[in-house]
Amino acid sequence: MLENIRHYIPEKFTARMSGNTALFEVPADEIVDVVTKLYAVHSLSLKMITAADERNEHGCFKIFYVFFAPEERAFIVPFIALRNREEFPSCAPVIHKAWNYERKIKTFFGLTPVGHPDPRPLILHENWPADVFPLRKDFNGKERPPRAHGRYDFQRVEGEGVYEIPVGPIHAGIIEPGHFRFNVAGEEILSLEPRLGFVHKGTEKLFETLPLEKKIRLSGKISGDSSFSHSLAFCQAIERLGGVKAAERSKYLRVVYAELERLANHFGDIGAIMLDTGFNFGGANGGRLREMVMQINERLTGSRFLRMVNVIGGVSRDITKEEKGKLIEELRRIINDFSQVIDVAENSASLLNRLKDTGVVSHEVARDHGATGVAAKAAGIAHDVRADHPYAAYPHCDLAVATGKEGDVNARFYVRIKEVYSSYKLIKEALEKLPGGSDTVTAGGGFSLEKNAVVVSMVEGWRGEIVYVVMTDGQGDISRVDVRDPSFLNWSLIEHAGPGNIVPDFPLINKSFNLSYSGNDL
Amino acid sequence: MTLGILWTMQILCIPALSPLIIGVIRKIKAVLQNRKGASVLQPYRDIWKLLHKDEVISADASWIFRFAPLAIFAITLVVGASVPVFASFMANGFTSDILVIVYLMAAATFFVALAGMDTGSAFGGFGSSREVTVAALAEGGLLFSLLTVALMSGTSNVFRVAETIASAELTSMLPAFFAFAGFFIVLLAENKRFPFDNPSTHLELTMIHEAMILEYSGKRLALIEWASANKLMIFIALGANLFFPWGIAHDASMVALAGALVAFAIKALAFCASIAVVESVIAKLRFFRLPDVLFVSFILSVIAIGLI
Asked: Are the beta carbons of B287 and A507 separated by less than 8 Å?
């Protein structure tokens, strides 16, 4: 493995394989050069920047820069160790993607990225004391810090007739809380700034303290509508650390469940996009189709949201032979139904007119912000973990990544439609190839986790790429879990999709992304 | 005696039946969308519920905020009593004039818009801005479509118009049909229905009418909701009795009145069905395309006048 990726690692550093990552330490003042080279010269994809408090074991904070090399399917992770200092050089001025990762490290670890253009905290609000850092090991998660009275400054736009619209965090509909600050001239949006963090739950801290069984449950609740994909990503990380091989049959079942989750959510989103234009027919049908899939989920697993289906080494629910035939037939009818709804929608000029050219995210913006999932595909970035780094039974399945060109609401709408059809094909294929008997859906036996390891696990959820970084300490206990929901990256696109549009189109634009607040706020 | 009863009916008809109209539209919409839908009486229950609720009024609100719902409701009562619903012989000389009706309604819009801005919330502000934009553009279409039938009948009193048009020959009705097309667009715009506004949306940023009244609660909200229902029914009554006045009672005989009530019920149902169909089959238009539609309404009315 190390031989293949030798050329990515500058010669003076020696890397060690740990879990599935190639780790090598870089002196702090050289990190920007090393990272920039990996990003710009080798065009590797930056999956995450994360920190860990290892002061007890190694007397330092570490900051990891997780890169993925798609050709070798390997993770290259340079890291820096901060001994007796709480500053590190910022990559954000050169790599825009690093922007929010570094803000998050500053907020949660109290390590300052020197040279970062935006010093404001992320996720934690002004009532959280500025000198309490929740992800440091010496912070007790059960203690309530004193209430602070800080300040948070929004961007301001001034000029004749320019006014501010504060929206949220409480909305007129039943949605998650988030605040949006618009600067508007007449009806045109000049700038738009989302302010999130209202559903911060201390998830990463909880991951360090809960027992393993509850960690799996927790991963399924990070973003309730991506329950299966999140728990799959976490279970795969643990399987990797524990050297557990998932049962062959369960790999195919994981494909089936993951695609059912995608189907349900895409139906819901396609309907909701139509509903937000006021096209009630489409809205009602989207909701109906989603419900049908949710009921299938409940019948198959006992949970409409596929909660607690993933376990270490496989899945907890099998699909019987009779159920298999029934499922294929049911899905065929649902897909047939869906294509009729889409036919009607495509004949509605008033609907298509609302979708086209609304909320454009250009290819460049999507690339620089590291957009992922539907938003990236709609802007012509054909990245999909299922194809780039296939997991479960995806290596044995046929998948064409759906893409669009314009990056507008219409393109995102159509990427979802294409993914609905490809999900149906994948489910059918996985069910037809399903190997083995029913008693082999979980690998048995005990396991112990690799020590001092860093493992990266990626899953293509229906929103996009879900990344888990799991680290263990010298005893083989999980010492740090960082979760990156696709929403964390895609929220920064909203700021670019809004301006130039009119205020009444914003709900539609927001819906076409349908990002998770909970997954972002953790 | 009979006339006394008839006048009571005329005055109460619109406020008593307007919530039913809203209920019927919602029911038809639900059926068209494969839903069961609430009972047609639900709007009555909503108003009843709101009338029993406490109000929260912003500390920054002035007397305009408190006074506006009463003004709006009162205006719809007066206008409601001054338009022909089932009988064409109950004209009054003061408020049944086309111009009085159009501008009384404009006064109601003016008060809602003021109240929307009164509390200083951003939503009320842009709601009022949008409402006034639409109202100003709709005024031309409304006035000219009503002027068409007024010119055709040589009077601007709506009861006389209904009487004259009812006896006009079908072949001379072409201008009225054109004017009606213009009028129907204004009906949708003034009552904040599709494709102008979505009366059932929860998305505060897309709202027009709902954004203005977002700060209202309890009894005042009930009055505003009720007044909006009245306004819709006034427009339906105008549309049904000025452009298609057939069946309207010309005298106080039992037969004529019963026939007129049935005729109005059928016509009102047809209006409800058309609104429900429009709201089920098309998407809402982009805000900046609304002037185009309203301009079409104005042009249609001008063509209608040219055809007389």
From this structure: no
Per DSSP bridges, beta strands A60-69 and A465-472 are: unpaired
Residues of chain B with C-beta less than 8 angstroms from the C-beta of A354: 283-286
CATH number, domain containing residue A104: 3.30.460.80
User: How far is it, in rounded angstroms, from Cα A497 to Cα A494?
Assistant: 5
> pTM of the full predicted structure?
0.87
Pairing of strands A188-195, A112-114: unpaired
Residue A407, min C-alpha distance to chain B (Å): 19
Please answer whether residues B134 and B127 qualify as being in contact, where contact means their C-beta atoms are separated by less than 8 angstroms. no
Q: Do B195 and A278 touch (CB under 8 A)?
A: yes
* Closest chain B residue to the Cα of A166, Cα to Cα: B122
CATH code: domain of residue A265: 1.10.645.10
CB contact under 8 Å between B203 and A280, yes or no, is: no
Which chain B residues contact residue A164 at CB under 8 A?
122
Q: Do A278 and B283 touch (CB under 8 A)?
A: yes
Min CA distance, A51 vs chain B (Å)? 39
Distance between CA atoms of A186 and A164, rounded to whole angstroms? Answer: 11
Is the ipTM higher than 0.85? The answer is: no
**Among candidates B125, B126, B285 on the partner chain, residue whose Cβ is nearest the Cβ of A350:** B285
Per-residue pLDDT of chain A (522 residues; tens, 9 = 90+): 677 788 888 888 888 888 788 888 899 888 998 999 889 888 888 999 999 998 888 889 999 999 998 888 889 999 999 888 889 999 989 999 999 999 999 999 999 999 988 888 888 888 898 888 999 888 888 888 889 888 888 888 888 888 888 887 888 777 889 999 999 888 889 999 999 889 999 899 999 988 888 999 999 999 989 999 999 999 999 998 888 888 888 889 999 999 999 999 999 999 999 988 888 888 889 999 999 999 999 999 999 999 999 988 888 888 888 888 999 999 999 999 999 999 999 988 888 888 988 989 999 999 889 899 999 999 999 899 999 889 888 988 888 889 988 989 999 999 999 999 999 999 999 998 888 765 566 766 678 888 888 999 999 999 999 999 999 988 888 999 999 999 999 999 999 988 888 888 898 999 999 999 999 988
Residues A302 and A438 in one domain: yes
Question: Do residues A310 and A436 share a domain?
Answer: yes
Q: How far apart are CA A287 and CA A390, in angstroms?
A: 31
CA separation for the pair A74, B47 (Å, rounded): 64
Q: Does a structural domain hold residue A178? A: no
Given the structure tokens 């929103």, which residue do they identify?
A463
Residue A61 belongs to domain spanning: 2-114
Which residue in the set A165, A288, A505 is minimally distant from B122, CB to CB?
Answer: A165
Contact in structure between A386 and A460 (CB atoms under 8 Å): yes
A58 touches chain B (CB under 8 A): no
Task: Tell me if A190 is assigned to some domain.
Answer: no
